[in-house]
Amino acid sequence: MVFEICGGWWSAMSGAISIPFGFIALFAEGNPRTYFAALAFIALWVFAIGVVRKNYKILVIQKPERTRALLTKMVDSIRSEKPIRTGSVANDYWRSMQPADPIGALIKFSDEIQSEDDLKWLCGEFIKLGYVSPFKPFEPQLGKDVAWLPILKEARLNQHEIKDQGRLLQFLALTWTGKEMWKQGQARVTANPTLENETVSVRNE
Description:
Blueprint: H1 2-16, H2 18-27, H3 32-80, H4 89-96, H5 103-108, H6 116-128, H7 139-142, H8 148-156, H9 165-175, H10 179-191, H11 193-198
Helix pairs in contact: 1-3, 2-3, 9-10
């Protein structure tokens, strides 16, 4: 990246900009130092604009590609998980027909998620693909605007791997450093029948 920016900057300063200023300094009236000072000032701005354009390209063009590649990695990870057998053919069949839970993959690859916006995009894509909504069951207790990325990263370091919403619920209530927030939210839900009726049951797998 540095080479690309400096290469374009060097080309501009050694030709299109420096040559006209050189002629002005040689043949025009006035102090040549003033013209070369102006040339140096323009050089600084050309370099700064090059850096901004390159950063924009990285953030706007390459970032969606990286996020989509991460989504593909998560989907592959979910597909590679072996289903848990309960010993009951009917129960195992019923469980196999339920939408897949992406919580485990979101936690597993949380260190590769760069922002809350990226996390929201990933969750939206999972829902479009037919997966369960990752955080909807926890909205009555934590609200819709809670920052989930720090929670996922903390859950990533939990002693026991968290692979589904049921285990995430246990983490939030018992281990999470913000568990007091969860307890307050749960008390609010219990005291408000309307919120309690809106609560979506968490799948225990």
